[in-house]
Amino acid sequence: MTKEILPGRYTAKLDDEIVVFIIGMRVNKWWAIHKWLPVFKAMPSMIRELYTNKEIGCLSMENFFGLRTTLMVQYWRSSEDLLAYAKGQKHLTAWKNFNKKIGNNDAVGIYHETYIVPKGNHESIYGNMPPFGLARATGRKIITPELNSASKRIRA
Question: Which residues pair with 114 in a beta bridge?
């Protein structure tokens, strides 16, 4: 299914703080499929939970897959929402399973980064794109002459 392309240039419509959460895994040893496949398979149920329960606070997400590394960028309403989800049942279960089955085994790596972006401390531009990234999470607005440079968008 192809997303509708929005012709022209637009920017994210964001009037509040937002939390950007990056999470993923890296396959370090391809032959140790019994170690990394369970980690990979733990994500779909959590993703489904976030998509179907918007009250949790995850606004949107984008997925990327490389040869060894997966990367997911999530946009959250607040750090409180993200931290509450981290303590929730599905995530805690996945985390406990990871530590029990993999722990410090170097066959698979996991990572996450959290960025709290205060209001007025972001900039974005999208040209001839489907709804994507921050604009998909928060909505979009057309770039007008008042917003036609990065410095103007940051100050807006």
Answer: 21
Cβ-based neighbour number of residue 16 at 10 Å: 11
Report the distance separating Cα 121 and Cα 11, nearest Å. Answer: 14
Is 101 among the domain residues? yes
The whole-chain average pLDDT of the chain stands at: 91
Beta strands in the chain (DSSP E): 6-12, 18-27, 58-65, 69-76, 108-117, 126-129, 140-142
Two tokens at 144? 């007008």
Evaluate whether residue 1 is within a structural domain: no
Assess if residue 59 is contained within a domain. yes
Total-model pTM: 0.90
Overall number of domains in the chain: 2
Give tens-digit pLDDT for 17-31: 999 999 999 999 999
Say how far apart CA 130 and CA 51 lie, in whole Å: 19
Task: Specify whether 79 is located in the same domain as 135.
Answer: no
Domain that holds residue 128: 6-13+119-155
Q: How many C-beta neighbours within 10 Å does residue 89 have?
A: 8
